[in-house]
Design brief:
The complex is a heterodimer of chains A (about 475) and B (about 100). Chain A has helices spanning about 10-15, 20-40, 50-65, 105-115, 155-165, 180-185, 220-230, 275-290, 305-320, 340-350, 355-365, 370-395, 420-425, 430-435, 465-475, and strands at about 45, 75-80, 115-120, 140-145, 145-150, 170-175, 190, 210-215, 260-265, 295, 400-405, 440-445, 450-460. Chain A is α/β, with parallel strands linked by helices. Chain A has a domain at about 5-250: Amidase signature (AS) domain (Amidase signature (AS) enzymes), CATH 3.90.1300. In chain A, α5 runs parallel beside α6 (about 180-185) and α9 (about 305-320) crosses α12 (about 370-395). The two termini of chain A are about 20 Å apart. By secondary structure, chain B is mainly alpha-helical. Chain B contains three helices and two strands, in the order αααββ. In chain B, β1 (about 85) and β2 (about 90) form a beta hairpin. Chain B starts with a helix and ends in a 7-residue tail after the last strand. The chains are: A alpha/beta (about 475), B mainly alpha (about 100). At the A-B interface, α9, α10, α11, α12 and α13 of A face α1, α2 and α3 of B.
Chain lengths: ~475, ~100
């Protein structure tokens, strides 16, 4: 096995047994990136110097016999919407193309405390707005399983980087499906946490009542290790409830006997590819054979989630993106303006791509006088109805299992002229986000064409451990 | 449903300059998106409360302790591409 194919714990073990150094791990990442990333385009910036410097520090400490955390010296990829002090953070938007943040996001501080080795920054849809990374100003990330297809989005670079062994884990963000969808398309695990489980401080805000920061990995254990490092209260993000972080590794290696698994009927059937439905149901059957109790449940408001999302998210986004005016940070427009207001029009007109303009305008419209009640307030109420569906379902079952996406990865360019069709891509991931629930995307087989299929395990708020327990056991059955 | 005049008005509110082609394109695309939102009218929301925060937190209190700054004045000013005058960023004229 090549070094870059190891899991985090295997690599950590090898480092401690002096079988290889952190520098060797970085070498393996760099070689893989050099060989493949010209085609895949998972990274928008490779921090070669920074990675080797961090590796050198870890190797020195290991040589001195220091007791280091398991993530020490392990190569990571970071979504380019997460601030990294001194390292360009662009949100893949023209307006931030040369922005170098003066501070680290809390999740980066925490990973640095764990002596991470950051390989580089990964590609995303501009400001995380999209389901395919096609709206990135650096160009699309290609699916490692089929270069003519998308890797999913918005965290497409983070998923493709882990899937193609360019790094051992990565961070992403999930607002309406941006971790789960690319994880599913690229055949890796992707953890969308409970709203407020992981600090959002230093992560560029998209839709503040939906945004979460989570992680990608090739095994459930790798997911649990990284989640343990990043989860937990942060004074700089006051939307985090004071809920203790459990020992996530303690949920692994357990069976599922007696667990109640719900299959939401609205997530199957019409519109869902038979291959996807069969793969998800086969996985559920295996869990049932292993002693889990499987029941069908109903989440009747599922079909309203996309509309709720595409009203409230652009509303929040339009307010959050007001700060990008080309003054305190961001690109100065090439043409000089006479007055400040013209400067704003130019900086924002030149600095934002089409999808951002569309969403800012939808948000501005639904918040404007005369439309506020009809769109925005109505959406906030239907959000409550969606949450009540989940509350009712979790009165009967421990977790829900469903497909992540109705098909496998779609072709690059398939939805270019039809934004609404692309918005529908999030139909099966938005509902859990609406309720702030954790959901773990897990690989569950491949289509006849060889493309990965993913399922998601959804749990009540702050019950990430249940997702990990079911996913870990399922992995032993596959 | 969203006329070109409305698109121009919204873009003005949002301080985004649009070309004529963009106005045409967005008018069509945004109309399609907004028409789709009508699906919400199927849901009876009488007596349903609004959700704007999903974990139920409100009025979060913290000890009044000053945290160390994450970055200094100089570093913050360096983020701007505009010219800096003392501790301020020089911007275009606001009023005539």
């Amino acid at each position: 096995m090549e070094l870059n194919e190891l899991t985090i714990s295997e690599a950590a073990d090898g480092l401690r047994k002096k079988k290889f150094s952190s520098k060797d791990l970085v070498d393996a990442s760099m070689t893989t990136i050099g060989g493949m990333d010209g085609d895949i385009k998972a990274f928008v910036y490779v921090d070669e110097n920074g990675a080797y410097e961090s590796a050198k520090r870890v190797d020195k400490m290991l040589a001195e016999g220091k007791d280091l955390p398991v993530l020490a010296g392990i190569p990571a990829g970071i979504k380019d919407i997460i601030n990294t002090k001194g390292v360009k953070t662009t949100c893949c938007s023209p307006i931030l193309k040369d922005f170098i943040p003066p501070y680290d996001a809390t999740v980066i501080e925490r990973l640095k405390d764990n002596h991470m080795v950051m390989i580089g920054k990964t590609n995303l849809d501009e400001f995380a707005c999209g389901s395919s990374t096609e709206s990135s100003c650096f160009g699309v990330t290609h699916n490692p399983y089929d270069l003519t297809r998308v890797a999913g989005g918005s965290s497409g670079g983070s998923a493709a980087a882990v899937a193609s062994n360019m790094c051992m884990y990565s961070l992403g963000t999930d607002t309406g499906g941006s971790i789960r969808l690319p994880a599913s398309f690229c055949g890796v695990y992707g953890m969308k946490v409970t709203y407020g489980r992981v600090s959002r401080s230093g992560v560029t805000a998209m839709a503040s009542s939906w945004d979460t920061v989570g992680n990608f990995g090739r095994t459930v254990k790798d997911i649990a290790i990284v989640l343990s490092a990043i989860a937990g209260k942060d004074r700089r993000d006051l939307t985090m409830p004071d809920v203790e972080v459990p020992d996530y590794l303690g949920f692994l290696g357990k069976d599922v006997k007696g667990m109640k698994i719900g299959l939401p009927k609205e997530y199957f059937g019409k519109g869902v590819d038979k291959e996807v439905e069969d793969a998800v149901k086969l996985a559920v059957k295996k869990l049932e054979d292993a002693g889990a109790k499987v029941v069908e449940v109903s989440l009747p408001s599922t079909k309203y989630a996309v509309a709720v999302y595409y009203i409230t998210m652009p509303a929040e986004l339009s307010a959050n993106l007001e700060r990008f005016d080309g003054i305190r940070y961001g690109k100065k427009p090439p043409k000089d303006a006479e007055e400040l207001v013209d400067y704003y029009f130019q900086a924002r007109g030149d600095g934002f791509g089409d999808e951002i303009k569309r969403r800012i305008m939808i948000g501005t419209y639904v918040l404007s006088a005369g439309y506020f009640d009809a769109y925005y307030k109505k959406a906030l109420k239907v959000r409550t109805v969606i949450i009540e569906d989940f509350n009712k379902a979790f009165g009967e079952v421990d977790v829900l299992v469903a497909p992540v996406f109705p098909s496998t990865a779609f072709k690059i360019g398939e939805f270019t002229d039809d934004p609404l069709a692309l918005y529908m891509a999030d139909a099966l991931t938005i509902p859990a986000s609406a309720a702030g629930l954790p959901s773990l995307a897990c690989p569950c087989g491949k289509s006849k064409a060889g493309l990965p299929i993913g399922l998601q395990i959804i749990a009540p708020q702050f019950e990430e451990g249940r997702c990990l327990r079911v996913a870990d056991y399922l992995a032993t059955l596959q | 449903m969203l006329t070109e005049t409305q698109v121009r008005h919204i873009a003005k509110l949002a301080r985004i300059r649009l070309t004529d082609e963009e106005v045409k394109k967005f008018s069509k695309q945004l109309s399609g998106v907004l028409d789709y939102m009508d699906i919400l009218n199927e849901v009876d929301t009488k007596n349903i409360a609004e959700t704007s925060q999903v974990t139920g937190l409100k009025n979060v209190m913290e000890e009044d302790v000053i945290l160390p700054a994450q970055s200094g004045r100089e570093e913050l000013l360096k983020c701007s591409e505009l010219s800096v005058d003392g501790n301020q960023i020089r911007v275009k004229r606001i009023v005539k």
